[in-house]
Request: fold
Amino acid sequence: MRTLMLKLEPVVWGLFGAGMFVAGLLYPAFLLVATLMQPLGVLAPDALSFERAHALAAHPIGRVVLAAAVAFPLWAGAHHVRHVNIDFGGIGRDAWFGALCYALALVGSVAAVLAVARL
Amino acid sequence: MSLRARVDAMKGSAPPRTRTADPAPPRNFPFRGNYLPYVAFGSCGILLFAVGFGLLRLVWVLGDGDATRWKAIFESYRHPLYIVFHAFALVALTWFTFRFFRLFPKTQPPKLGPLPRPPDAVFLIGLGAAFTVSTLLVGLVLGGALP
Reply:
């Protein structure tokens, strides 16, 4: 498992870097608007209504942005969490813990592609 | 008359270990020097997981075509625990982003294609501008100000 993860490191690094950018550029605005302003009633009630959100998400650009916004940051998260675990727990359990982190990111990425395909 | 000493007489039967002990964190880790922000930066990976899977849940519900569940999710976001968590995630991920932007120029090679690497300030201004534009754009679209 460790050898496989070492071989996949360049691929993971690419996904990790993309995830850092995508999360940095999209998540603060998403968190501010969708998870704080909307529930607190700052926005117009229909700004994130189901119909409008569906229309935005189902647009081809919306699908690509959403798939990227879900999938790439999961890889960045997986890589970060794996390395925090190495810092605190040593390299000993990295083989299974790292594999678990990347497996979560992979499952989430596949689910993201399926989710936007269903829109 | 004694025999001549063999030069490999003291050589071990197996190659020696290159380390005397497994790698271990430095003393007082992570509460000394720059370790705390370093660990906090890495720990933001948990938030990336949380927000990423939260967004996935929203997209999945949109795909189900279930407007009632969609509304219920936003109703649940009014819970104080959700508000505190999302506010924390917003602050933490914004800090995370700008720390990443600060680190990014250091990861670049001395030459980018045929051109020499620009000064760090150029990267920082470019990344800061990209952050501002994307945040405004996403905010305006999600907020309903842009179609």
Summary: Chain B has a mean pLDDT of 89. Strands of chain B lie at 111-112, 115-116. The longest strand of chain B covers residues 111-112.
